[in-house]
Design a protein that fits this description.
This protein is of the alpha/beta class. Helix content is 47%, strand content 20%. The chain folds into 3 domains: 204 residues, Alpha-Beta Complex (2-enoyl-CoA Hydratase, Chain A, domain 1); 142 residues; 60 residues, OB fold (Dihydrolipoamide Acetyltransferase, E2P), CATH 2.40.50.140. The protein has a 6-stranded parallel sheet with strand order 11-6-4-2-1-14, with helices on both faces. A 5-stranded mixed barrel has the order 16-17-18-20-19. Helix 2 runs antiparallel to helix 9 and helix 12 packs parallel to helix 14.
């Protein structure tokens, strides 16, 4: 096997081993404490890493015998599939779960309102908000409400979650169907939450002695003066949270495709191919955590083909324009799954800017840089004396059609003139051709 290829394969295996080791490893160990509250934080956009973090935390809390799990919320929403995994894990938890929107100014919007409603006990801090849970879809028109079938399904699901916890199912359903938004006092009055607490200490004092149902068992909470253990994100969940972001997945996809293309165009180093293959694997892995529109993926591939065609057969920007249009449409159609984002979320704007930035960079690169490289590769190679043609120097000796010598770039070359011409020693000459190891020169006329 070629040595460079072997080194490239080994490098790729090492990098992939490290990445999958990160994915395989969880968080650290927690020493048992009979009266400990296990604290999980859900902040920012809810993605696959978030659901993994919650699942790991609930399992760990059960293993150490925690009195309860406190899930602190401050989120604008996130991916539907990730939200469903989180609510399912909370509803089936063998440890009581307290969901709490905190600190002041925090929100549990969209997917966050589903999670808030799923807790055995739900609470909010003063100055917090919840609701606005109508699912949205992303397309060429931007964000828009999902189809009626999807909205009805998630409205029914929210209603079911609230009813299972003894909450106001009608109001919970309106979070999805009417995009209702409630502050903490209204949420308490309408039976969405159980209490309002300024901070963790007040919350734990208020829920102390309350009875919650875990499966078929009634359990009385002993949370007063309990110690708090705040779980840090594991490397595994952090990595998955990054990869499951559609923006990151899209960027990795493009880098992967370009890496393979440039690797095939410049064989021998194996670096572009290896980087491209790794990025492509990571992008496909990340896309596995949200539904992908195959038509969007096809448009992205067509866009890359058009960019390459522009570089190979320049059409003065026609194919580049077509490729840019296909890339933008394909990227916007790529995430197919409904998203649960609040109306205030700037996720889509960020995603759109990412798409436009990559499209412009790709169009410029393929329109100019790749075209220049390919033109250079198609140009006939000049080696030895051929690359000296057109150079100006001085005659080292008298030169005529029989012969003589010149010095150029520190080398002495045999030279001769065309028939009937002679050049005196020291005269300026221009190299016009080459015959074997002899250069053909002519007198350089004064400008």
């Amino acid at each position: 096997m070629n040595t460079k290829l072997l080194h490239g394969v080994l490098l790729g295996l090492v990098i992939l081993s490290i990445l999958f080791a990160f994915v395989a490893n969880g968080g650290g160990e927690v020493k048992g404490d009979k009266n400990v509250i296990y604290v999980l934080k859900i902040e920012g956009t809810i993605k696959e890493g978030t659901s993994l973090d919650v699942a790991e935390g609930l399992k760990e809390a059960e293993e150490i015998g925690a009195e309860a799990v406190l899930v602190e919320l401050d989120t604008p929403g996130g991916l539907v599939d990730s939200m469903l995994k989180i609510t399912k894990a909370i509803l089936n938890s063998k440890v009581p779960v307290i969901t709490y929107v905190t600190p002041k100014g925090a929100i549990a919007a969209s997917a966050g309102s589903f999670i808030l409603a799923s807790g055995n006990i739900a609470a909010m801090s003063p100055g917090t908000t919840t609701g606005a849970a109508m699912p949205v879809e992303i397309g060429m028109e931007g964000r828009k409400a999902a189809d009626e079938k999807t909205i009805k399904f998630f409205a029914g699901h929210m209603e079911s979650i609230a009813a299972s916890r003894g909450r106001n199912a009608t109001q919970a359903k309106r979070f999805v169907t009417e995009n209702d938004v409630l502050i903490e006092t209204a949420a308490l009055e309408r039976g969405i939450i159980d209490l309002i607490a300024i901070n963790e200490t007040e919350l734990l004092n208020k829920v102390d002695g309350k009875t919650v149902k875990i499966g078929t068992e009634n359990r009385t909470l002993a949370t007063k003066n309990a110690s708090l253990y705040k779980k840090e994100k594991s490397v595994r969940s952090s990595l998955l949270e990054v990869l499951s972001n559609p923006q990151i997945a899209f960027i990795l996809l493009m880098v992967g495709i370009y890496g393979l293309i440039f690797g095939f165009m410049s064989p021998g180093t194996y670096v572009p191919e290896m980087i491209g293959a790794i990025c492509l694997i990571l992008s496909l892995y990340g896309m596995g955590h949200f539904d992908v529109n195959m038509f969007g993926g096809l448009l992205i591939i067509i866009a890359v083909i058009l960019f390459i065609a522009e570089a190979l057969t320049p059409t003065f920007g026609i194919l580049t324009t077509g490729g840019a249009v296909c890339l933008i449409i394909g990227a916007l159609l790529l995430p197919k799954e409904p998203f649960l984002f609040s109306p205030q979320s700037d996720w889509f704007e960020g995603f759109l800017l990412t798409i436009i930035g990559i499209t412009v960079a790709s169009a410029v690169f393929f329109g100019f840089a790749v075209g220049a490289v390919l033109k250079a590769r198609r140009r006939k190679a000049k080696v030895g004396g051929e690359e000296l043609i057109g150079k100006i120097t001085k005659a080292e000796t008298d030169i005529d059609e029989e012969g003589g010598t010149i010095k150029i770039r520190g080398e002495i070359w045999n030279a001769r003139t065309l028939a009937g011409e002679s050049i005196k020693e020291g005269g300026k000459v221009e190299i016009v051709d080459r015959e074997g190891l002899t250069l053909i020169v002519k007198r350089k006329s004064k400008s």
